[in-house]
Amino acid sequence: MKYIDLHVHSSASDGTLSPAKVVRLASEKQLAAIALTDHDTLAGIPEANKESDILKEEGTFIQIIPGTEISVSYRKKDIHILGLFVDTNSGQLYDSLEQARIRREERNHKMTANLRTAGIDITVDKLKEAEGDAVLTRAHFAKYMVEHGYVKTNQDAFTKYLHDDSPYYVPREYLSPEEAISLIHSAGGLAVIAHPLLYKFTLPEVEAMVAYLKDYGLDGVETIYSANTGFDEGHIRRIANKYDLAMTGGSDFHGKNKPDIQIGTGRGNLKVPYEILEKLRARL
Q1: Any idea of the CA torsion for 20, 252, 213, 234, to the nearest 10 degrees?
Q2: CDD domains, from UniProt (predicted)?
């Protein structure tokens, strides 16, 4: 049986491997396809496609599904909508993601200024020196603090400085879920709610969220996921079936930023069958 991974990050956002290295690693793991879904950007997809072409010349075939993971605000929480099969030449989607990048940049300048008042020598320029063109997230802030000895672990950085209620934290300006779904559709893609159980809603609240998003055109729910335990997958399958939504699956691979999660296999037992991809293509 062939397997896939439809939720993967690279250094184009907050992963630690370049898009090319992500594709090469996925090929080594014998995955048939991956979706590159970096946060609020399409920047890594050309490099991923190029590496896929190189592998094809070497006799190995792996499909690259162009995607992105868009942060939106729902009930005052940051939730994520995956866009799969998006047209990377879509001006409307590109422009919106670029505006999100600008707002994120402004927010990062405010957060680094706040952290400097706590005695942490950090600036956006210093983060960029280390991370290049990556879309800076709190994961990069945490990595910087660890590398410069301000905290021992990434979790320490979040606990002490980067959590949502921290005095140093600056809230983001988000798109609405409706706007994100519309943008994904305008680019010819499918809109999928990512890891619906991670938002700390009760199951009835998760179902209410899915029903709300379905009314605005949601196409699918990420059902097979690295953090699932017990009956989690079964609960999401029930909700997906009830609302006639496609099911997707992915590891949420980030490289060393999430060292316990491996591409294709998550925490060791993740398996996303190729038929998931075939059913998604049928939805298109």
Answers
A1: 140
A2: PHP_HisPPase_AMP (cd07438)
d(CA 89, CA 77): 30
Task: Tally the residues of the chain.
Answer: 284
What is d(CA 242, CA 55) in angstroms, rounded to the nearest whole number? 40
Q: Round to whole Å and give the CA distance between 69 and 189.
A: 12
Asked whether residue 102 carries a pLDDT value surpassing 90, the answer given is: no
Largest Cα–Cα distance in the chain?
Answer: 55
Mind listing the pLDDT tens digit for each residue in 60-69? 999 999 999 9
Q: Output the pLDDT for position 281.
A: 96
Cβ count within 10 A of residue 217: 14
HSE-up of 249 (CA within 13 Å, CB side)?
Answer: 27
Q: Can you read off the two tokens belonging to residue 48? A: 């991923």
Nearest to 151 by CA among 120, 123, 129: 120
- Amino acid at residue number 62: I
Residue 134 has pLDDT above 80, yes or no: no
Pairing of strands 272-273, 220-225: unpaired
Q: Over 90: is that where the pLDDT of 135 sits? A: no
Confidence of residue 105 (pLDDT cuts 50, 70, 90): confident
Class of CATH domain 3-90+188-283: alpha beta
- Predicted pLDDT at 137: 83
Mean pLDDT across 249-262: 95
68, 83 contact by CB (below 8 A): yes
Segments making up each domain of the chain, as ranges: 3-90+188-283
